[in-house]
Amino acid sequence: MRVVFLDFDGVLNAVSDDSSPALGELWSAAWLDRGLVERLATIVDRSSAVVVISSSWRQKRTREELAEMLASHGLRGEVLDVTPRLPKPPEGERRVRAAEIEAWLDAHDPVEGFVVLDDEPDMGRLTRQHVRTDPTTGISDDDVARALEILCAGCAAPDGRARSSSEDE
Predict the structure, then answer these.
(1) Mapped to the 3 state alphabet, what secondary structure does 111-141 carry?
(2) Phi, psi of 5 (to 5 degrees)
(3) Which residues of 140-154 are buried (b: 16+ CB within 10 A; e: fewer)?
(4) Under DSSP, is residue 159 helix (H, G, I), strand (E, B) or coil?
(5) What's the maximum distance between 2 C-alpha atoms anywhere in the chain?
(6) Which residues lie below 8 Å from residue 71, measured CB to CB, with a gap of 6+?
């Protein structure tokens, strides 16, 4: 199984004061950008990955609600699960999301490959699988290509060509 660990804010929407929907619509489909969800769909389709939601949105919505929001914006793949909520780390430690992803991975063997789509700057030991998006634009075509490289060498690139390891050199 291949897994896409998915953050929402800064990945599936552009986080800026002038582009955010009204505060009353927080954690709703109105906050998702259809074009950015389509980029996620490209990753899922070409890698045959499932989605596990690591976003804080999982604390306000059920997996089923989040899956429906994503499907309504073009995601055709499976939203398998959400990461567990862990206690806050000790003072000065920030890597809560990475620890939650690691806990999910520890409980779900085997995972053939995974990628973390998130605008967070630090994923600790998960850095090699982390595609850090620009929170002001969300997931880009370059991020899609990098995610596919991380998930599987034989996945098709965003332009539809099969990727080979020699293209990465």
Answers:
(1) CCEEEEEECCCCCHHHHHHEEECECCCECCH
(2) -85, 125
(3) eeebbbbbbbbbbee
(4) coil
(5) 49
(6) none
Look at the pTM and tell me if it is higher than 0.90: no
The three-class DSSP label of residue 23 is helix
- CATH code of residue 130: 3.40.50
**Other beta carbons less than 10 A from residue 134's beta carbon:** 15
Whether residue 53 contacts residue 83, with contact meaning beta carbons closer than 8 Å, is answered with yes
Q: Output the six-digit token pair for 57.
A: 């949105």
Closest listed residue to residue 101, CA positions, set 128, 135, 61: 128
pLDDT digits (tens, 9 = 90+) for 18-57: 555 544 465 566 778 999 999 999 999 999 999 999 999 9
Closest C-alpha to 52, from 13, 99, 4, 123: 4
Q: pLDDT (tens digit, 9 = 90+) per residue, 88-119?
A: 766 666 668 899 999 999 999 889 999 999 99
Tell me the chain's radius of gyration from C-alpha atoms: 15
Residues 6+ apart with CB under 8 A from 114: 2, 3, 4, 5, 105, 129, 150, 151
Structural domains in the chain (count): 1
